[in-house]
Design goal:
Elements (H helix, E strand, L loop, with lengths): L6 E3 L22 E7 L6 H14 L3 E6 L14 H11 L6 E4 L1 H8 L7 H9 L2 H4 L2 E7 H5 L7 H7 L1 E5 L6 H22 L1 E2 L12 H9 L10 H9 L5 H5 L7
Parallel strand pairs: 2-3, 2-5, 3-4, 5-6, 6-7
Antiparallel strand pairs: 1-4
Helix pairs in contact: 2-10, 4-7
Length: 255
């Protein structure tokens, strides 16, 4: 089974650079790193392509994908074995510029298997490593995560460690997100969350793919062309992942 180093840099390829938003300065600033968490069960094109677009918009030199051991909000349905998820993620990122995989949460889960993966623990541990100590960190998340952010462990400390960046994905749309954050947080704090989002009206596309759909299609013997990278689909089939019995047992429903 493929092995993935803790910070294994993957193959690089160039993509056109998108000008940064006018309110984000890039000169004379620390290295910018985009942190992308998730179970990646399996990794699909929305994970990889939206992360690339967000990193380009923010001026991030690197993207670090951090597969979770177990999400604190989805601890009832254990994910696919970590080695499979790491192998699939490495295949999905083979052509993503400056992408790295951190196994920090997987490794922590192996020694503390009963504990879920808390973002603040990961950020604190990353900050002890040289490449992250002086970097400006951005934390990618979706609408649901933004609206539940106050439930995250030590969420105030997370804001000191990294800047949240929100992307709109189906079934959300921009108007619904704006309305929801204002209702949840009030006008002032809601405006802060709206400012943290890269909105479709600012040129960020919406890619309507979720891991649940991919798993269900695989379990039915259907093609996932256009939903996952070809190499990922091949790996899934060759390793017998997401067969119907697994899906019916509730193998992690997540985006």
């Amino acid at each position: 089974m493929p092995k993935v180093a803790q910070f294994a840099e993957l193959s690089l390829s160039s993509t056109p650079h998108t000008p940064l938003s006018s309110h984000i300065a890039v000169q004379n600033t620390p290295t910018r790193i985009l942190i992308v968490g998730g179970t990646f069960d399996p990794p699909h094109i929305a994970h990889t392509r939206l992360a690339q677009l967000a990193a380009d918009r923010l001026g991030c030199e690197r993207i670090v994908f951090v597969p979770a051991h177990v999400s604190p909000f989805k601890a009832g349905a254990p994910p696919t074995d970590a080695e499979h998820r790491l192998a699939m993620l490495a295949l999905a990122l083979a052509d993503v510029p400056n992408a790295k995989i951190s196994t920090i949460e997987i490794d922590r889960g192996r020694t503390h298997s009963e504990k879920p993966s808390y973002t603040i623990d990961t950020l604190r541990e990353l900050r002890t490593q040289r490449e992250f100590q002086d970097a400006e960190l951005f934390l990618l998340m979706g609408c649901d995560q933004a609206l539940e952010f106050h439930r995250w462990k030590d969420w105030q400390e997370i804001l000191k460690c990294a800047r949240p960046v929100v992307l709109i994905r189906s079934p959300w749309d921009e108007a619904e997100f704006v309305r929801a954050v204002r209702e949840r947080y009030g006008e002032e704090e809601g405006a802060e969350w709206i400012a943290r989002a890269i909105l479709p009206s600012q040129g960020m596309p919406m890619i309507d793919v979720c891991a649940t759909e991919v798993r269900e299609r695989i379990s039915q013997g259907l093609s996932c062309e256009g939903l996952v990278e070809e190499a990922v689909e091949k790996y899934i089939v060759e390793n017998g992942l997401y067969r119907r019995a697994q899906v019916e047992r509730g193998v992690r429903a997540e985006a």
